[in-house]
Amino acid sequence: NCGNLSSGVVPFALSAGLISAADGWHVFRLFNTNTQKLVDVGLRVVGGQAEVTGDLVLPGVSGTGAPVELIYPDPAGSRTAGLLPTGKAAESITAGGAIFEVSLVDATLPVVIVPSAAVGLKGTESPEEIDANVHAMGMIEQLRRNAAVRMGLCESPEDAPDVVPKVAVVTAPEPTRLLDGTSLAAEEADLPVRMISMGQTHKAVPGTGAMCLAAAAQIPDTIINRIIRRSRPGADTGDEDRTVGPEVRLATPSGVVTAGAVFDAETVTATSLFRTARVLMRGQVAVTD
User: Is a pLDDT exceeding 60 seen at residue 284?
Assistant: First the structure.
């Protein structure tokens, strides 16, 4: 269900002549056979091809490009039984002899959400610093595997898939230093996040992971929902705005990624994100009969 890969499908289909469209903004509907879910892709067509030149800047991506809007209708339960696979917004899981409070959410992607302090991190470290922290990474992997069982992705921790669930390490907003050496003020984002994927810390955040976090932010009493609400003015007196979303600004190691979600008090009906796409290379593969 990769958001980055999804953004390249329609541009490729147009360039390969698999589909055609008149100039202008269009929304194309994809069917993901992996998850049995739909993905709506909005982009501008120029001269029969996807427009690639534009001013959209994405953290972790070189240059600028034309926006490709990804909308995931009905994103809940991409790999599990539903938006909250266990039916709980927050719960306790044991890993490495310790008890962790986590949120297990599946909207476009199954994600384990854990406060940074619980795994011995600040939550604003660089990917390299986190990857070098053997103790923290070990706890995170044990937590991920146990959570996979809880989410119904496998029967035992040893059988946990490598790809999912991802782990989102989150904390309250605070200033952070980005990979390009610049600083990001606390008020420029709603939530710092460090996403652990395939045993490594992501240099930004996976697209579907960002959308899952946007969805989780709107679900009452999830780890993220609590952090964002407690960080708002008036939180100490109970006078804060309790509504979160529909867009959430995530402070990643490469900059701010904004993702959106629509929550109707019972489930998330859609998530969205902007990406860019362009042709990087063309080639031929010789295949024998």
Answer: yes
The predicted pLDDT at position 236 comes to 57
- 284, 75 Cβ separation under 8 angstroms: no
H helix intervals, 45-126: none
Residues 6+ apart with CB under 8 A from 185: 175
Give me the CATH number covering residue 41: 3.10.310.10
CA 268 → CA 74, 151, 238, distances in Å?
7, 18, 26
User: What does the pLDDT average to over 66-83?
Assistant: 96
> Is the confidence at residue 244, as pLDDT, over 60?
yes
Q: What residues make up the domain containing 59?
A: 3-73
Residue 190 to residue 232: CA distance in whole angstroms:
9
pTM: 0.92
Q: Read off the DSSP letter of residue 21.
A: -
Predicted confidence at residue 105, as pLDDT, reads 98
Mean pLDDT of the chain: 94
Residues 149 and 177 in one domain: yes
User: Which pLDDT band, with edges at 50, 70 and 90, does 183 fall under?
Assistant: very high
On whether the CB atoms of residues 250 and 224 are closer than 8 A, the answer is no
Task: Enumerate the H helices of 191-264 as residue ranges.
Answer: 207-218, 223-230
Residues 163 and 232 in one domain: yes
Closest C-alpha among 167, 149, 171 to residue 158? 149
Same domain, 21 and 101: no
